[in-house]
């Protein structure tokens, strides 16, 4: 209901503005030489006579349009050059995105000043005023300055780069963008965390070194442990061939624990953090197939229940 009301208000305001523009622009044409046309020209026409405004300032309008097109083209060319100069390495991509963001902001600022100059605004005075205004704003925009400096430190200290997998608090995902003010991290569900650079504290970068994927698998207590260990070790090379994402390993790590109804053994491998879960699932699959091929049983959890009536029968 609120959205419908907002649309209705927008429609009414737009209609009123359109009517004012229409009256202000066409009053002298529709009612030439009349008192009504004179009143309109001296009131609404000063602000809404679009035809008169375009007629008197068409050169400046064309100049402004030319400036916008030129700055837009220049921005696109510089963005293209940045892409060409940055390779696909994570650090280079991060710097490319940062410089692209800086170029985008500078292009907008330059376009604004050039258009104001075209309309007769004294830009040196405007720059001096902007400097004073910027100094005043800086005292109230400390968080913005903190975000900018924090982003620069993140990049130049190589804390993490675009493509790294990091964890900030409970959110874990791939770094998609490091901007002047914010950092974007996308998790495995596609949810994007947008966080100010100054709020990135205690981030865990899991992409610095290869990650370990572990597979825990159980065998029966009565099984021939030495035989099973020999079978696993003999098949490690074939497991690696079947899982191309493995960087190091796989390794047989021995007995992990002695559970209630089984012996738990562990096999691990090192891989890129991006493929950690994929390699773990693949290890599970390979070991299950090896166990089935060699008739090695995987026990089910067992629970022994003693019934009270059975005790009475025995007594």
CATH class of the domain at 211-293: Alpha Beta
Number of strands: 8
The CATH architecture designation of the domain at 211-293 is: 2-Layer Sandwich
| Secondary structural class | alpha+beta
Shape: elongated
Order of helices and strands: HHHHHHHEEEEEEHHEEHH
Averaged pLDDT, please?
Answer: 76
What does this structure look like?
The protein is an alpha+beta fold and 315 residues long. Among the domains are: 151-205, SH3 type barrels, CATH 2.30.30; 211-293, Alpha-Beta Plaits, CATH 3.30.70.100. Helices cover 57% and strands 17% of the residues. The protein contains eleven helices and eight strands. The protein has a five-stranded antiparallel sheet. The chain is elongated. The N and C termini lie far apart (76 Å).
In short:
This protein has about 325 residues and is an alpha+beta fold.
SSE inventory with pairings:
Blueprint: H1 2-30, H2 35-42, H3 45-48, H4 50-85, H5 90-118, H6 123-140, H7 142-156, E1 165-168, E2 171-178, E3 182-186, E4 192-196, E5 204-205, E6 211-219, H8 225-234, H9 236-242, E7 246-258, E8 263-271, H10 276-293, H11 308-314
Helix pairs in contact: 1-2, 4-5
Structural features:
single chain; 315 residues; alpha+beta; SH3 type barrels; Alpha-Beta Plaits; five-stranded antiparallel sheet; 11 helices; 57% helix; elongated
